[in-house]
Amino acid sequence: MQLYSTFENSIFLEMAIATLEKKGINKEDIFAVPLDNRTEERKMFDSIHRSDGTSLVDIGMALATGFSVIGASIGFKLSWGPIYWGLISACIGFVLGFIIRLFIECVIKKRKRILKGKHSEVILIINCEENQAEFIENILWSHFALGVAKIMHT
Prior knowledge:
154 residues; 2 domains; 4 helices; transmembrane helix; transmembrane
């Protein structure tokens, strides 16, 4: 049987490995693989092949609708009339909403992504007998593994 677990690269990983060795797991049965985390920035604009589910035009459309109603109603008193002023104010509302959403995605959410932390940095693979799997899994969880999976070999 094999157990796979992911850890942050911290002292808890070292403590888990040391505890496993003290409990009788051979060094040859423990394999740690460091991961290369993404270093490039995430792309802001979606392509036809990739989308992150975030829309940049949602606030812009809502503001365009509101601004166009207000612009059209005010346009009855202005020289160009309600249609032109409704279209002009809709464009202003859309651009304003787009800028607001761009600011939220680029500045505010970028800070949150940086502060979140919790990246899998190491995969720990342990070969063991089926009767050892339960207590090894408990050791991994008690040393703050981010995830654990068991695979039975036949």
